[in-house]
Design goal:
alpha+beta, two-stranded parallel ribbon, globular
Amino acid sequence: MVGLSGKFLGSTLGDALRSAPVTLPDGSRDADLPIEPERSTSGSPLMSPATPRTSWPSRSGPVTTAALADEASEPGWENIPSWAVVATQARNIPARAQIFMAQHAHAHITRVRASHAVSVPAPPTSPR
């Protein structure tokens, strides 16, 4: 994904990643690739532009280099219809990269004028 995003002009994803060693549940070692708020010029792809960077949530697990490099043994899109919402205002993963991936998967594409955060539901409020 990172390599693909870098092939399209305007991507800020590579500059926003920090590599950190991580031990996986099976004991193997890899590199976690979190998006660092202070290195990101466009904000997290998972948060609304109105959300302060200091309140970005931690993730449930690592996004590793292996996970981004692995290929599916049998792509689901070959047998299952797929859809894609392309956020045309996204900068970490530019719209052209999103469209390229969606077309490769023969997805039904809907373009929306929004950041990548459009795909994330509003977080629940927490009681004080």
